[in-house]
Design goal:
With about 220 residues, this protein is mainly α. The protein has one domain (about 5-220). It has six helices and two strands; from the N terminus they run E-E-H-H-H-H-H-H. Strands 1-2 form a two-stranded antiparallel ribbon. Helix 4 (about 110-135) packs antiparallel against helix 5 (about 145-180), helix 4 (about 110-135) runs parallel beside helix 6 (about 185-220) and helix 5 (about 145-180) runs antiparallel to helix 6. The longest helix has about 35 residues, at about 185-220. It is globular, with a radius of gyration of 20 Å. The chain starts with 8 loop residues before the first strand and ends with a helix.
């Protein structure tokens, strides 16, 4: 068992390396995209909906309600970004029940990329709601002395997002690997089930924190 999917190299040609993280990430994106297209292909047609479509609608509605509860009064603006974050992390973590599968969220490169998406999305939505001048002035609140601290806070929370998700996923992998060497098979299976719950919690925490950061960047216009 690898501590990180980055360690599993599938193909290498010179300096170009294709590891498990890249392959699994693109595979997940492809499966989720195709799956969403198949489930929603009858979205605009009349008649009974499928169970999968009903389940997906419940998930989307729940995410939208969570976004609204955080303080974003027009959740449909942010649903595609926040929803994609949550679903990718959740599906990535849930698929750990599959044999030989290693979640890409166990790679620091993946969690850093997700955190960078949030880092870019916060000023994007902030500028869209407040305008460039209004968003930049938020760094001077409550006084201009806070400018360097606000910038450091922006950078540090991005780093914290990446490290938190990576650390939790990697620690779970390490615990299971240790248990496999010192205990019977049943106990690691129980830990795997607990790992699924932890993975869902991490997906929720990551997406909620992203929502909170966006809400803070847009609160002037929203309020």
């Amino acid at each position: 068992m690898h501590l990180s999917p980055d360690e599993l190299v599938i193909w290498r040609y010179g300096f170009v390396v294709l590891n498990s993280t890249i392959v699994t990430t693109w595979a997940l994106m492809l499966v989720m995209t195709v799956g969403a297209m198949l489930v929603t292909r009858k979205l605009l047609t009349e008649g009974p909906i499928s169970r999968w479509q009903g389940f997906l609608e419940i998930v989307v509605t729940t995410i939208q309600e969570q976004i609204k509860e955080v303080g974003l009064h027009q959740p449909e603006k942010y649903l595609s970004f926040i929803g994609t974050l949550f679903l990718f992390i959740a599906v990535s973590n849930l698929c750990t029940i599959l044999p030989w599968y290693e979640a890409p969220t166990g790679s620091l490169s993946t969690t850093a990329a997700l955190a960078l998406c949030v880092f870019v999305a916060v000023p994007y939505f902030g500028i869209a709601e407040q305008g460039l001048g209004g968003y930049l002035r938020s760094y001077l609140k409550p006084t201009f002395i806070m400018l360097p601290f606000n910038i450091i806070s922006e950078l540090s929370r991005t780093l914290a997002l990446a490290i938190r998700l990576f650390g939790n996923m990697m620690s779970g992998t390490m615990i299971i690997a240790i248990l496999l060497t010192i205990t019977p098979l049943v106990f690691p299976i129980i830990m795997n089930l607990l790992g699924l719950l932890t993975g869902m919690v991490q997906a929720y925490i990551f997406s909620i924190l992203a929502t909170v950061y966006i809400a803070a960047a847009t609160r002037t216009r929203e309020d």
